[in-house]
């Protein structure tokens, strides 16, 4: 950090002059000294361009601080692997040792490996406030910093590395951080592909090698060839509230993914052709390899002719050159290309068999095995794209196609009966489709086309946002049939449908919805066609926005437990898809803790979870960090499956106490956020929500439908900008509000000792309190009241209420965890926040000043607004959090 901080200082002097650098230094020193009044005087009324430049200076500092922390994690891991006698906590080696210590048998481990499936799903949610070109520069700096860990580097090499880092920092400074236009869906795709192709693609083989070594060191069993890791995406298929996504973006996204992936396979095959130079006469080669060389040579005569004659006695080299030619033909959609990834897998398997039979274990097998692992994981599609649409859209389309204008108002039971009859009798639409209906039906046609072209795993489940009844699921089946997805000679469509339960009320009703579905003969037959497997998605964002963190987390926990019981009773294999956001308020936090605190039976070897926004960069931005992320996730899923928490006689009493905490927490939260009619005005004035809603950081609107400003309510506002705005204003209110009141009452009724026992022995409550403590530690209630002043008399009315609840929540967390200060139990995080928060303060005070001036001018699109945009991005960098 010292090295990079000094480097940033040199860049600022060079680019902006010594006078500006001294302003930055005065602001920095005032922030460290907590001299907020002096700091406010320094930044108040700065010209907009100077304000924007000052914000960018602090944001640049945070960019390198964030990188330094990640590199430190990589350094610590390397030091641990070199010097520690015991494997690192959360590693695959530590996990297999723990399984053995618990007497988990080889047969049980083999069965678990057959079932294990981890699937991070990268979403297009507009929470990443950093341009891709800046992310690429960050990648370069990160790699250079990792290279600096080599102790054998010479002084000249060190100088060269620092010069290159300075070049990247300087060009980043000279790059406009604000896109000139709102990104399109395809722009969002490029952002996600950056991580998939530059990071994830590279770390998949090392992950499997580590898994195999960990298993072999403890158990005498083989790791199955089937992939444990799968990757998904919502980019191109997430239509919920986004009129820019649909059939064409789905096709275009998969085409782009296929193009990039096949090019990487081709380049890897060409590299293997260079490396596998053994002569067939010296080592021997299988007949299958020789036959393939002859067959491919005939098909790709130009490629064969381009191989020098002196290489023709090197069968592996010739074969991989011809495989590269066939991959290029595949990319160009030529007739002699690969029909599917399975054909490429067969070619690579054939080479592996030949190498093993002819002393090639250490003469090329490693590289071929790595390519095969990638093909098994990514197929020809790279990432499975899910499709998502809102239940209200399906209802509106059916009202048109069934010629029933009262369809959406009919009771759900009536809709269910009508849909079942249409499905069983094979009815066709009776109404003419309007534009919305045509767009909806086109999506199902695109699903069929994409599976045919890109492979059966190219399309994931069809997700129904705000699903409320069994009729919402049957509605998709009927529309899918009308869109051409029905199998020839079958009444059923080849489509996995995942209802998404988001609000607390919907989570509470989810078991009844699934019971109704499983009792429906038609849907039961559909599940039989799909292997009796059901995906259910649960939403963390809207439930939190609806009821506050305490009630939302408990509703999610209870819903999972009830759904496990419901589907187990029906003999259905259940996979939960967790719709987690980046922040604690939207389901973020430590994923391993979340997995290990999940209800019994809810994991079972499978995890499907969304990865969003800045969290993608934090978890997958560098290869070493990405590998550790996947290792910790797989380890947690393995332990939760093989060593589930035993039932505790105290659980029944704890559930009752948690019911009370959830009820009281929800009541306190809703009393402020929803029941007080003027609170939305405070929110709009005391946070930069009006800036965030105009930011060009996502392809979809900030609100699902209509304009919530017109209605005076916040229901229409998406959870992302809701959380983003509270984070910017340093309140972080959605991550803690209501819990303090609830814990006060619980302590009064049940005693502090009982609550401490629950936190000590119940992973669910311990994880909840740890997550809330992290939010409380990040909030800054020396800065938040200055934002409250933006709301005038509303600030005087509401902020004392908010402050009192904040103090209550902090006091309860400290008392229950028996700590003197927040995060005493996590000193690394405590230090990180203590370091960051003062440096965010200058940007926050600048933002407050800019908001006052911009609003007074009528919110124009001018230099003040540009400076505000810079402040939003800078604070997001400093707090490592948006929505």
Secondary-structure map:
Layout: H1 2-16, H2 18-32, H3 36-43, H4 48-83, H5 92-101, H6 106-115, E1 117-122, H7 132-147, H8 155-173, H9 185-218, E2 232-233, H10 247-275, H11 280-283, H12 287-299, H13 301-305, H14 315-331, H15 341-357, H16 365-378, E3 384-390, H17 391-401, H18 412-424, H19 435-454, E4 459-465, H20 470-482, E5 497-501, H21 504-519, H22 521-529, E6 533-539, H23 541-547, H24 549-569, E7 573-579, H25 591-596, E8 606-611, H26 613-620, H27 623-642, H28 651-673, H29 679-686, H30 689-692, H31 708-711, H32 719-728, H33 739-750, H34 752-761, H35 763-778, H36 784-788, H37 793-817, H38 827-856, H39 863-879
Parallel strand pairs: 1-2, 1-8, 2-3, 3-4, 4-5, 5-6, 6-7, 7-8
Helix pairs in contact: 1-2, 1-4, 1-8, 2-3, 2-38, 3-38, 4-7, 4-38, 4-39, 5-9, 5-27, 7-8, 9-10, 9-16, 9-27, 10-14, 10-16, 10-19, 12-14, 15-16, 17-20, 18-20, 19-20, 21-24, 23-24, 23-32, 24-28, 28-33, 33-34, 33-37, 34-35, 35-37, 38-39
Molecular structure report:
- By secondary structure, this protein is mostly helical.
- The chain is built from 39 helices and 8 strands.
- The protein has an 8-stranded parallel beta barrel, surrounded by 8 helices.
- α10 runs antiparallel to α16 (365-378).
- It is globular, with a radius of gyration of 28 Å.
- The model is unreliable at 706-712 (pLDDT under 50).
């Amino acid at each position: 950090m010292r090295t990079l901080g000094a480097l940033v200082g040199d860049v600022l002097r060079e680019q902006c002059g010594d006078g500006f650098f001294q302003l930055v230094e005065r602001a920095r020193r005032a922030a460290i000294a907590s001299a907020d009044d002096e700091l406010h005087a320094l930044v108040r009324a700065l010209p907009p361009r100077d304000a924007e430049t000052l914000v960018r200076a602090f944001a640049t500092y945070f960019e390198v601080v964030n990188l330094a922390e990640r590199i430190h994690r990589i350094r610590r891991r390397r030091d641990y692997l070199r010097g520690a006698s015991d494997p690192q906590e959360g590693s695959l080696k530590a996990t297999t040792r723990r399984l053995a210590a618990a007497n988990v048998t080889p047969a049980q481990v083999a069965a678990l490996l057959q079932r294990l499936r981890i699937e991070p799903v990268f979403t297009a949610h507009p929470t990443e406030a950093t341009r891709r070109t800046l992310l690429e520069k960050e990648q370069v700096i990160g790699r250079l910093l990792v290279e600096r860990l080599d102790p054998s580097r010479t002084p000249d090499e060190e100088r060269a590395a620092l010069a290159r880092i300075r070049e990247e920092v300087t060009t980043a400074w000279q790059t406009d951080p604000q896109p000139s236009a709102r990104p399109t869906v395809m722009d969002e795709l490029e952002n996600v592909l950056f991580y998939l192709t530059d990071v994830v693609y590279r770390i998949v083989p090392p992950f499997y090698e580590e898994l195999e070594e960990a298993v072999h060191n403890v158990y005498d069993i083989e790791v199955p060839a089937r992939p444990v890791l799968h990757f998904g995406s919502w980019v191109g298929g997430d239509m919920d509230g986004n009129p820019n996504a649909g059939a064409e973006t789905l096709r275009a996204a998969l085409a782009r993914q296929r193009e990039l992936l096949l090019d990487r396979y081709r380049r890897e095959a060409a590299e293997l052709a260079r490396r596998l130079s053994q002569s067939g006469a010296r080592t021997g080669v299988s007949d299958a390899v020789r036959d393939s060389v002859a067959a491919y040579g005939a098909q790709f005569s130009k490629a064969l002719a381009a191989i020098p004659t002196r290489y023709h006695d090197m069968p592996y080299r010739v074969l991989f050159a011809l495989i590269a030619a066939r991959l290029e033909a595949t990319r160009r959609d030529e007739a002699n290309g690969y029909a599917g990834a399975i054909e490429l897998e067969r070619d690579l398997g054939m080479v592996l068999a030949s190498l093993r039979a002819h002393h090639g274990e250490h003469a090329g097998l490693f590289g071929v095995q790595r390519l095969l692992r990638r093909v098994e994981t990514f197929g020809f599609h790279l990432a499975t794209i899910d499709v998502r649409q809102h239940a209200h859209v399906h209802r509106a389309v059916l009202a048109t196609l069934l010629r029933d204008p009262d369809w959406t108002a009919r009771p759900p039971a009536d809709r269910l009966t009508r849909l079942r009859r249409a499905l069983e009798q094979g009815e066709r639409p009776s109404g003419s489709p309007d534009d919305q209906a045509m767009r909806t039906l086109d999506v199902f046609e695109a699903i069929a086309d994409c599976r045919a072209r890109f492979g059966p795993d190219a399309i994931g489940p069809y997700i129904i946002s705000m699903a409320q009844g069994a009729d919402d699921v049957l509605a998709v089946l009927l529309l899918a049939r009308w869109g051409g997805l029905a199998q020839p000679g079958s009444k059923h469509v080849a489509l996995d449908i995942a209802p998404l339960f988001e609000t607390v009320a919907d989570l509470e009703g989810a078991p009844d919805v699934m019971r109704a579905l499983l009792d429906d003969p038609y849907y039961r037959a559909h599940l039989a066609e799909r292997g009796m497997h059901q995906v259910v998605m649960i939403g963390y964002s809207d439930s939190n926005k609806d009821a506050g963190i305490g009630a939302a987390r408990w509703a999610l926990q209870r819903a999972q437990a009830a759904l496990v019981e419901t589907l187990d009773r029906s003999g259905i294999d259940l996979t939960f898809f967790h719709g987690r956001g980046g922040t604690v308020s939207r389901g973020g936090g430590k994923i391993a803790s979340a997995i290990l605190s999940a209800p019994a039976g809810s994991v079972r070897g499978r995890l499907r979870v969304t990865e969003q926004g800045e969290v993608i960069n934090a978890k997958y931005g560098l290869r070493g960090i990405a590998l550790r992320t996947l290792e910790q996730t797989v380890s947690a899923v393995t332990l939760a499956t093989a060593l589930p928490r035993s039932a505790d006689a105290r659980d029944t009493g704890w559930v009752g106490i948690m019911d009370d905490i959830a009820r009281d927490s929800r009541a306190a939260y809703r009393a402020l956020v929803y029941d007080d009619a003027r609170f939305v005005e405070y929110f709009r004035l005391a946070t930069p929500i009006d800036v965030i809603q105009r930011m060009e950081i996502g392809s979809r609107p900030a609100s699902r439908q209509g304009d919530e400003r017109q209605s005076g309510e916040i229901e229409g506002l998406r959870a992302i900008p809701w959380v983003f705005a509270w984070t910017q204003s340093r309140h972080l209110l959605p991550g803690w509000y209501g819990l303090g009141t609830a814990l006060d009452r619980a302590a009064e009724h049940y005693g502090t000792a009982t609550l401490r026992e629950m936190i000590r022995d119940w992973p669910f409550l311990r994880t909840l309190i740890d997550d809330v403590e992290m939010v409380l530690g990040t909030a800054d209630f020396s800065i938040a009241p200055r934002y409250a002043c933006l709301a005038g008399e509303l600030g005087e009315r509401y902020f004392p209420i908010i402050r009192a609840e904040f103090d209550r929540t902090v006091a309860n967390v400290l008392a229950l965890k028996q700590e003197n200060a927040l995060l005493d139990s996590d000193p690394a995080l405590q230090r990180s926040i203590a370091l960051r928060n003062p440096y965010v303060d200058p940007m926050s005070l600048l933002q407050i000043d800019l908001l006052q001036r911009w609003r007074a001018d009528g919110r124009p699109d001018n230099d003040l607004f540009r400076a505000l945009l810079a402040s939003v991005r800078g604070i997001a960098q400093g707090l490592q959090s948006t929505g």
